[in-house]
Design goal:
The protein is an alpha+beta fold and 451 residues long. It has helices at 22-26, 61-75, 89-99, 107-114, 116-125, 142-148, 173-181, 222-226, 240-256, 289-297, 301-309, 388-401, 412-421, 423-428; strands at 8-13, 32-37, 52-55, 80-83, 133-135, 154-158, 168-170, 188-192, 197-206, 209-219, 231-235, 261-269, 275-281, 327-332, 341-346, 356-360, 367-368, 380-385, 404-408, 445-448.
């Protein structure tokens, strides 16, 4: 490789939408792109312009390491190995460490962002409030954990998972004792339950400073979503509350050592006003967060994350987006608790809620077979308006207006019959005779209607 040979970038990809268009993220910067992608991520990639494309059944480190070594033998040591997904960030850092890759995120930094005890230790050491927590790898008793953390309730969670996977709230010592028997103590931690409103702060840091930042308040919680309730958030208006949250987040990121990168950080405000760090991801937020930011601010957080990790200058400038920030928010519905399930009716809230500017509804007859993700639910909505209060009211109005009815596919005959009779009901949001009203579930079925 000569000095004029474009740098080699190895990308671990799962994204099949516009946020997987890494060739666009380069924006004319020279680069040889090698993609290691899941089958679902292939459509987004510039296959013709790539140096190599490998469709992989697994993006696990041990499965990729021999392949990445072969790629380095053919083309030289990559300048960076990059993974945008929460599931791939650590793998990319481990591959970089194994090959002596000069660019990208260092392993020490990524491990602080991936391991919840490590991130809370770093933030707490800077004098910022974090939940009290306890490692479980020394096999403590339930009684000793409760004593160490100052009482109940407590939160039991995986040290490295995302999206509230495996998270549970325990309210008694006996419940904690039972829960500890069912988990790998080296993979879990236990922490103080902190009551309060939950916010998320999203943005990009460059050269140790906030380059772009927003703050939003959740509508319900990620744990609620895992238990079947819709999840959303509303962007905060400019003002003291937003400034306080973003300054707190910036201090947390400084304590974690993030100089250049995108982030999604969660904060709890206790009833008395105290801010408590919850956790942070070294990546853009999920669900509708990146789409809303493109729509309202003109910033592609995934492009900025890619360029920050590769030490390329940012694409977004303060003049890139609208002159004034606009209020906005999003709302997503989970798949039914009982699966597989067929969609037999659903309504659109757009006529009743003009702030809804984008919606994705499941098709009548669509069969849900898996739990889905934040991007694959049973209803996706984006909002914009004139103020946070107006958007928040619109989100709650949409929850009142939206109706989704599903039935277990084992009851095929009933589901097909219901599908015929519910078409008219889907237009008005009213259940037909014999169907469940809002909040009730028919036998073998479910209706999602949460205010």
């Amino acid at each position: 490789m000569t000095d004029r040979t474009p740098p080699l970038y190895v990308v671990l990809n799962r994204s099949g939408d516009e946020f997987g268009e890494y060739h666009r993220f380069l924006d004319g910067h020279p680069g040889r792109m090698v993609y290691l992608t899941t089958p679902g991520g292939l459509p987004a990639l510039d296959q013709d312009g790539a140096t190599e494309v490998h469709v992989c059944d697994s993006l696990a480190h041990d499965d990729l390491l021999p392949l990445v070594r072969e790629i380095a033998d053919r083309h030289g040591t990559p300048q960076a190995v990059f993974g945008q997904s929460e599931y791939d960030i650590l793998t990319a850092a481990r591959l970089s460490a194994s090959l002596g890759v000069p660019g990208g995120y260092g392993l020490d930094l990524v491990e602080r962002f991936k391991d919840k005890p490590a991130m809370k230790s770093a933030v707490g050491a800077a004098g910022l409030r974090v939940p009290r927590f306890r490692h479980l790898d020394d096999a403590p008793s339930a009684e000793s954990v409760v004593e160490a953390l100052g009482g109940l309730p407590l939160v039991l969670k995986p040290r490295a998972a995302a999206g509230s996977q495996g998270v549970s709230v325990v309210h008694s010592t006996g419940e904690l004792r039972d829960a500890l028997r069912g988990v790998d103590p080296e993979a879990y931690e236990c922490e103080e339950y902190v009551d309060g409103e939950i916010f998320h702060v999203d943005g990009v840091r460059r050269s140790g400073r906030l380059h772009f930042v927003t703050a939003s308040q959740y509508v319900h919680t990620c744990l609620d979503y895992a238990h079947g309730r819709p999840l959303g958030s509303v962007l905060l208006d400019p003002g003291p509350e937003r400034d306080e949250l973003t300054a707190f987040a910036d201090a947390c990121l400084g304590a974690l050592g993030l100089r250049d990168g995108a982030f999604h950080l969660e904060v709890i405000r206790r009833p008395g006003g105290e801010l408590v760090f919850l956790e942070v991801g070294l990546r853009p937020g999920g669900a509708q967060v990146p789409f809303l930011h493109v729509d309202l601010y003109g910033i592609d957080l995934f492009a900025e994350a890619f360029r920050a990790a590769l030490d390329l200058p940012p694409l977004w400038r303060p003049s890139s987006g609208p002159a004034e920030p606009r209020a906005g928010g999003w709302l997503i519905y989970p798949t039914p608790r009982e699966l597989p399930a067929r969609v037999v009716a659903r309504t659109s809230p757009r006529a009743a809620v003009p702030e809804v500017y984008h919606e994705e509804l499941p098709a009548i007859g669509q069969v849900m077979t898996g739990p889905g993700s934040y991007d694959e639910g049973c209803g996706i909505f984006r909002f914009r308006g004139e103020s946070a209060a107006g958007v928040r009211a619109a989100v709650h109005s949409a929850m009142e207006a939206y109706r989704l009815r599903t039935e277990r596919t084992e009851r095929t005959e009933r589901a097909e019959e219901a599908g015929k009779t519910l078409d008219a009901g889907a237009e008005t949001g009213k259940a037909p005779d014999g169907g469940a009203e809002a909040g009730e579930a028919p036998d073998g079925g479910a209706e999602q209607s949460h205010g």
